[in-house]
Design goal:
Elements (H helix, E strand, L loop, with lengths): L1 H4 L14 E5 L2 E5 L4 H8 L11 H8 L8 E4 L2 E9 L2 E9 L5 H9 L5 E3 L1
Antiparallel strand pairs: 1-2, 2-5, 3-4, 3-6, 4-5
Length: 119
C-alpha cells in the first residue's frame, strides 16, 4: 500500500524523539503518543480510560482545553502539558515523589479516580 500512496503515518508510530526520558530525580518527559498501559507499567499506576489509548489522549480527556503549562494531578503524580500543536498534545512532563519500579530504572540507564487540574 505504501508503494502506491507513499508513507502512511500511524498514530502510534514513534518519531525520532524517544518516548521516555528521565530529566532529573522524579522528573520525566514522555511523548504524548506513549500508551497508557506503558505509563501504568513504568510508574505503577492504574490509569484506566476506555476512550483513548495514549497519554496525550488521556490528558485531553481529563481537560479538553488544557493549555501548555497546565497540569493534571493523579495519585501523587503531576502530568504537565509541555508542547501542543493545534488540538494535540505532543510532549508531557511527569513529576512524582515516588520511585519507579526497579526494572524501569535499569532500562532507562540504557536509554478512575478524578484527577485534580492545576495551573
Amino acid at each position: 500500500m505504501e508503494e502506491i500512496v507513499g508513507d502512511i503515518s500511524d498514530d502510534f508510530e514513534t518519531k525520532d524523539q524517544p518516548e521516555f526520558i528521565m530529566l532529573g530525580e522524579n522528573h520525566y518527559r514522555i511523548s504524548a503518543r506513549m500508551l497508557i498501559d506503558d505509563v501504568n507499567d513504568l510508574f505503577g499506576l492504574d490509569i484506566d480510560n476506555e476512550n483513548v489509548d495514549t497519554m496525550g489522549g488521556w490528558l485531553l480527556d481529563q481537560k479538553y482545553d488544557v493549555k501548555e503549562g497546565e497540569e493534571v494531578e493523579y495519585h501523587g503524580y503531576r502530568f504537565k502539558a509541555i508542547q501542543k500543536e493545534k488540538n494535540s498534545i505532543l510532549v508531557i512532563d511527569i513529576f512524582t515523589t515516588r520511585k519507579l519500579k526497579n526494572h524501569v530504572e535499569s532500562a532507562e540507564s540504557e536509554e478512575k479516580d478524578e484527577p485534580e487540574i492545576t495551573e
